[in-house]
């Protein structure tokens, strides 16, 4: 059982001492419970994103002075809370909603910036993100896509490669060096964005499979929040990548 999402991995449902799934009668993870909690996290994200959007722009449509605070505060705060959630999954009923709220500030500010440059791009990215979610969910539930072991290995390897590329971009950026072509609006840059979107979307399939496995194994009730958190992480990644791709296409 493997997922490319770092929040969802093989040992997530297991007790570190006994190596077995830990749950109590009547307090087990359910699919409906996970879906409901995913909806709650999405709502919290949208609420703070809407607030950040309203604060990120001035009445004249320019970026507000506090724009950077929402971007970096949301990004760094979200990363810290995500790491806490991954290492202390029992805290997910508290940390998952906090992650959604904090990450919403980042998404709202970034979305406002993109929409300022390319009007209407945010709605397009939102529709593509949820369209991809429901299409892959349908494909998974109907058996069109199966999370086989080789499928999982391929997605995990590709996800790790993308992570290394992004880390290299950040490190080189500190020295004023830009990664050539892949972040530009040329054919290579657009192709790279399409590849990343495909991998992010396939991570959704692994997440569906992982959550379903947890439900079948009777994972503890708090894992509903943890499973919802994992899905939100992937959806946010997918949404950002759609924004990047659409901005490259519209800037040509």
* Sequence stretches where pLDDT stays below 50 over 5 or more residues: none
Task: Tell me the radius of gyration.
Answer: 19 Å
> Could you tell me the strand content as a percent range?
under 5%
Compute the average pLDDT: 88
| Major sheet | none
Which structural class do the helices and strands define? Answer: mainly alpha
The shape, in one word, is globular
The helix/strand order is HHHHHHH
Annotation field: number of helices: 7
User: What is the helical fraction, as a range of percent?
Assistant: over 70%
Assembly status: single chain
- List how many beta strands DSSP finds: 0
| Beginning-to-end CA distance, first to last residue | 42 Å
Tell me about this structure.
The chain has helices at residues 31-56, 67-87, 92-117, 121-141, 149-174, 187-216, 223-250. It has 252 residues and is mostly helical. Helix 4 crosses helix 7 (223-250).
